């Protein structure tokens, strides 16, 4: 039976999913739910790990990145190295980054810590990022939209960054494959939006460098144009204004001379 995945460029390569997020957010459990087994250690503290599996006839490569801490001012070296390692494990790059967050309040501190980590991957990473909310059982019948509306300005910021791409998983029911199907369908939608381009840190860094170069050139050109316009205004002054300016200048010079 054909699935949405048949539209993938390669048709045979595995879908590469990168799990990111803070420690104890449930990343490893999400990986296990996606793959339908115990592929990842859920006790925490382990380094970045990769596992493979399949769903509905589609091969999956899932990378569970080392969880980051709550530091807001800087990113520890180990976290940077693990993040780069995670990208290499899904070479040439992940088709989707799944930002795992528990269904709890998303605070200013959470936002700042997240921003610091995402900045390492450039602004372009948000085009490939989708939020996966864990602890889905906490909704207890409440609609996810209602929960998000109560999330405040920081939750609004996050959803805007991710273009309102999100799914909810209940890791306590890992054999509920319908929730996995819904998540992968949303990933496929995101792939279509991105023209089936995967995330490439190298590519986005080059783009940022090019954008910065062009922005600098535009600003320099604008400054030169301002200088030219200033020169044109000065040379286009009427004759009497030029004489007045010259007279004023001479008077000032005579005052200096007369008063020694």
TrEMBL record:
Residues 204-232 form a coiled coil. Keywords: Coiled coil, GTP-binding, Nucleotide-binding. It holds the Pfam family AIG1. One of its GO terms (molecular function) is GTP binding. The keyword Coiled coil applies. It comes from the Eukaryota. InterPro entries: G_AIG1, GIMA/IAN/Toc, P-loop_NTPase. PROSITE patterns: G_AIG1. Residues 12-208 form the AIG1-type G domain. Belongs to the TRAFAC class TrmE-Era-EngA-EngB-Septin-like GTPase superfamily. AIG1/Toc34/Toc159-like paraseptin GTPase family. IAN subfamily. This is Zgc:136870.
């Amino acid at each position: 039976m054909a699935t949405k995945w048949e539209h993938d460029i390669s048709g045979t390569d595995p879908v590469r999913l990168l799990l990111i997020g803070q420690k104890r957010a449930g990343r490893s459990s999400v990986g296990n739910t996606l793959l339908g087994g115990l592929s990842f250690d859920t006790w925490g503290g382990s380094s970045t790990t990769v596992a493979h599996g399949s769903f509905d006839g589609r091969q999956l490569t899932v990378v569970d990145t080392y969880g980051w801490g709550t530091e807001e001012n800087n990113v520890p070296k180990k976290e940077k190295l693990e993040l780069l390692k995670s990208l290499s494990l899904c070479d040439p790059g992940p088709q989707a980054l799944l930002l795992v967050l528990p269904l709890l309040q998303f605070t200013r501190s959470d936002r700042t810590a997240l921003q610091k980590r995402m900045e390492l991957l450039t602004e372009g990473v948000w085009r490939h990022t989708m939020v996966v909310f864990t602890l889905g059982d906490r909704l207890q019948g409440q609609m996810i939209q209602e929960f998000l509306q109560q999330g405040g300005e920081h939750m609004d910021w996050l959803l805007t960054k991710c273009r309102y791409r999100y799914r909810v998983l209940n890791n306590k029911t890992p054999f509920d494959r319908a929730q996995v199907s819904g998540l992968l369908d949303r990933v496929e939608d995101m792939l279509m939006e991105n023209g089936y381009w995967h995330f490439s840190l190298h590519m986005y860094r080059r783009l940022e460098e090019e954008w910065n170069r062009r922005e600098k050139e535009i600003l320099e050109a604008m400054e030169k144009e301002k200088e030219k316009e200033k020169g044109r205004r000065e040379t286009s002054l009427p004759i009497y204004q030029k004489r007045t300016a010259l007279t004023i200048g001479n008077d000032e010079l005579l005052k200096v001379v007369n008063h020694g």
